[in-house]
Design the sequence.
């Protein structure tokens, strides 16, 4: 599978040998149709102050460089995990890039944006939208109505 990988400041590489992710029971596999580039991506490209760091794995993903970029993306569901009932193959989705522990007090209260170990797909591991495929938790894949373009949905 192809993926744009961050190897450090100023070092992005399009790799053709990245392992395609497998869909876990609570996930959907998405083929990105649109992926944006925002200021966070530019900061990551220019400096080594992003997490994960070269030698410090992110606490939830366990990943270090290289990581696949792309946290603002939308696309098509191509596979559905066995525990997922509200999405199906062919659905158009906008993907919320949240990585959370689901165990800390904030997560248990539903405030995953305040997770003690908060992370973002495409910046801190877990794959990214600048790849052929990515698996995301189904709760973070939101159906797009036909009237909303991939571009608008991915922002």
Sequence:
């Amino acid at each position: 599978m192809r993926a744009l990988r961050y190897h450090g400041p100023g070092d992005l590489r399009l790799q053709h040998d990245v392992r395609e992710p497998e869909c876990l029971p609570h996930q959907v596999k998405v083929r990105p149709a649109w992926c944006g580039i925002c200021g966070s991506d530019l900061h990551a490209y220019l400096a080594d102050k992003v997490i994960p760091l070269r030698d410090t794995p992110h606490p939830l993903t366990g990943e270090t460089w290289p990581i696949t970029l792309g946290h603002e993306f939308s696309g098509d569901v191509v596979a559905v995990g066995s525990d997922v009932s509200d999405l199906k193959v062919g659905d158009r989705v906008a993907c919320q890039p949240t990585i959370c522990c689901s165990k800390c007090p904030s997560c248990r209260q539903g405030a995953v944006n305040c997770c003690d170990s908060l992370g973002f797909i495409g910046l801190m591991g877990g794959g990214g939208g600048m790849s052929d495929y990515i698996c995301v938790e189904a709760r973070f894949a939101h159906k797009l109505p036909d009237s909303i373009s991939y571009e608008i949905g991915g922002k």
Q: What stands out?
A: The longest strand covers residues 27-35. The helical segments are 39-46, 105-108, 150-154.
